[in-house]
């Protein structure tokens, strides 16, 4: 019998709670749902008014993975749906996760949460900058940290305050709050930063996506600022062998990782996030504070 749970007045059928999703750690679907309930406050703050896309992995990361922007079949009528511009003449639709009930409904589908850099109220006008630092083996997050420190200083020269989180995979994400600007302009600025980084650190950075250029270097992926692109949200679990999290980190932690050359320093699983939130709070909270908002030069 499928258990029915009430969340904020909404009835949810939470299925297969004992199902093991992460075989390496024995992590069950019930534990995944508990994680999302525990981190709901900061996660919802970063998802607020942002249409989401889902990477679904209902049988765990070793099973079928499929990416969807459209609301999944059976989406409840009370889930908020936003009209989202597409490249075609017709508008598309995407889910907006704005409350705990919607979060738990989506988490029950076993998903990664990915967001645009703009809000539903202002499509294609980005209020966040994102740089995805993706190391190509044998480079690791250690090299990504070195690149992030350079980019942090470069952004500061333009009056833009950068923050960092792990990708939850092998790299690092840099984010900054911006006064809303056309996504095309933010994309062009992000690309210029990636090119500058490659010129300044030619043995460490590449700004082009071609995989043959990337071994041993950090690809500064600027493309996720495009209006159509989405990026893994802060605090989302990832479809990896273990239940890793896209975890906010302090600049002190980034510096320590770069100096120690110890990639394990920036590997976080879901069971560590409660303690981190109690100790540090939401390290990405400045992204939500207008006083920390920059503007394109």
UniProtKB/TrEMBL annotation:
MF (Gene Ontology): ligase activity
Entry keywords, A to Z: Ligase
InterPro entries hit by this protein: LigD_pol_dom, NHEJ_LigD
A Pfam family matched in the record: LigD_Prim-Pol
Highest taxon in the source lineage: Bacteria
Residue ranges of domain DNA ligase D polymerase in the record: 28-283
Listed Gene3D superfamilies: DNA primase, PRIM domain (3.90.920.10)
Full protein name: Non-homologous end-joining DNA ligase
Lineage of source species: Bacteria, Bacillati, Actinomycetota, Actinomycetes, Kitasatosporales
Gene name per UniProt: ligD_1
């Amino acid at each position: 019998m499928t258990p029915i749970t009430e969340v904020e007045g909404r009835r949810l059928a939470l299925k297969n709670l004992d199902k093991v999703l992460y075989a390496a750690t024995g992590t069950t679907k019930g534990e995944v749902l508990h994680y999302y309930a525990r981190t709901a406050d900061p996660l919802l703050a970063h998802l607020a008014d942002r249409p989401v896309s889902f990477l679904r992995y209902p049988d765990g990361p070793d099973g079928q993975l499929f990416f969807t922007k459209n609301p999944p079949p059976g989406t409840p009528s009370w889930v908020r749906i936003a009209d989202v511009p597409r490249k075609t003449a017709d508008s598309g639709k995407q889910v907006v996760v704005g409350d705990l009930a919607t979060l738990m409904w989506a988490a029950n589908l076993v998903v990664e949460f990915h967001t645009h850099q703009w809000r539903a109220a202002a499509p294609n006008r980005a209020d966040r900058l994102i740089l995805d630092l993706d190391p190509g083996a044998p480079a690791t997050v250690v090299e990504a940290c070195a690149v992030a420190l350079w980019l942090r200083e470069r952004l500061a020269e333009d009056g833009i305050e950068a923050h960092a989180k792990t990708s939850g995979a092998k790299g690092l994400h840099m984010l900054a709050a911006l006064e809303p600007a056309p996504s095309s302009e933010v994309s062009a600025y992000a690309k210029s930063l990636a090119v500058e980084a490659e010129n300044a650190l030619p043995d460490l950075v590449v700004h082009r996506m071609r995989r043959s250029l990337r071994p041993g270097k950090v690809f500064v992926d600027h493309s996720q600022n495009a209006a159509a692109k989405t990026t893994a949200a802060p605090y989302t679990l990832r479809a990896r062998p273990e239940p890793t999290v896209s975890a906010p980190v302090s600049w002190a932690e980034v510096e320590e990782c770069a100096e120690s050359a110890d990639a394990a320093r920036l590997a976080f699983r879901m069971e560590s996030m409660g303690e981190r939130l109690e100790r540090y709070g939401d390290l990405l909270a400045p992204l939500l504070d207008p006083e920390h908002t920059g503007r394109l030069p």
